[in-house]
Every structure is written in C-alpha cells, then in structure tokens.
Amino acid sequence: ALSKLTTNDDDGSYDSQGQRRYYSYIRDVTTTRGERLGFGILLHYTIIIVDEGGRYGFVVESVYPDSPADIAGIKRGDIVMAVDGRYIDNSNYVTCFNNIQLGGVSSLDLTLRRRSEGGAEYDVLIERGVYKESPIAHYEVIDVEGYGKRVGYLSYLSFESEYNEELTKVLTHLASQGVGELILDLRCNGGGALSSALLLSSAIVPSAYEGKTLCSIARNKKNAVSQQHSDFKLENTGQLLNLERLTVICSDYSASASELVVVGLRGLDFPVTLIGTTTE
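-> structure tokens emitted (280 positions)
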C-alpha cells in the first residue's frame, strides 16, 4: 500500500540493495494506546554468548512496571538462559526472542541468571497479561567513587507526547537528586514527537539557551497547500537539570527525533558526546 503512494517521495530511504525503506507504517492496534498484551520484558537487540558450550543468553534491557515480569521479580540486567526447560542456542534463539519480546505465547517458564548475585540462576513461570508500555524504560542515579558529580541515566525508547508529563516527572526527580551529568540511552529510540524532543532538550541545557531555536520545519517545496515555516525554540531552560554537557548512547536504530536532539543541541554549541555506532 505504501509503495503506491506518490504524494510524498521523501518518505523513506533506499538500502544498499535498492529496496525502499519506509518511515511510515501501518499498525493493527488491538488494545488502547499505551497498553500492551505480553510479558513486559524488553530485550536488547543484541545476543550475548554466555559460555563456551554455545549457549546464548538474552540480557533484560528493562522490565515495565506492574507487568507480569515485574510482578514475578524479573529485573533489569538479568540474563535469560533457558525457555520452557530448554537452553537458548543457535537453533532456537529466534523463536525464544520473539516469544519473550512480542508475547507470542500465553506463558513462559524462564531460567534466568542474576549477575548482581554472583550469577545465581532462578526459575520463574509468568503468564501473559496487559500492562502499560511507557517509553521511559529505565532511569537511575549513579554515584562513581571519586568523580565528584552524580550521574543520571535515562533509557528512553521513543519520543511520545502522550508521555511528556511522565518524562517531566523523571527529569524533575533526577534534578532533585543533584544530577550533574546525564547519560541518555537512545539505542532503541527510532524517534517520534518533536514536542518531546523540545521538552527534553530544554530540560537539559542551562538558562543561557532560553529562546534559542532547536530546529526549524519547512514544508516541502512541492506542497501546494502550505509553505508554512515553523521555528521550535527552547523554553524553561535552566529549571531542571541545567547541565554543561550531554552523553548519548546510540545505535543504527537511533533516528529522527533522537538525531534531532543531538544535532539541534550541537548546532547551538552545546557539547554532546556520542557513544555507540552511527545512527540512522
């Protein structure tokens, strides 16, 4: 259906094989926005091999609050070793990954390893259920001995304006803890609402950036209806984190609004350090 559209030739890009990759997509929604049927486990998109016997392990990137996984006691950083009594290996890792991440089965019997407890393994049986899927996957304050500043960490999965209030609460909490540095994890963030990017950027920088233009949006020159030009300026700066620099963890999946925050702030001479791989 998307390939037949001719109204927006700029929608998407082409890969090395000449196939068009679309930024627009069609989704069949079976629950209300923000609700998801599954287990509530977010897996990182990489796989780690945990032993020389060829057994794989999936690192739990985050656990959504009040989800079946959260109720069962699964924590961020745990490693899934086996599913339904069978260790994960090269022959079954795709099926296991999809069943955990996408909630494609009604229940899972998992064996996990907890690194914070010396690698101790534990078993848990979880039933699929409904939970709220917030784009704020995880946040915490890290104290590094001898560093002199408290470091905030925020794993942010998508820029969704419906969760701007929740984002503000998290940023306010980090500020209340005296955070002097911020690590913004955008590895799994494909973009989203410009308003959320503006909110996040404004919360990071000091008051000297008040009213500065983060980005401008210009309509396509072929647009016969409107040639509107919009500037998006930083607002209420210096009231929350008031930082001197930003560190962003990124991947080739980081795109759109994720890149906007980086490029927009750099364009205003605000220091942004990237860690990871080249973004989309």
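The CA atoms of residues 218 and 229 lie 5 Å apart.
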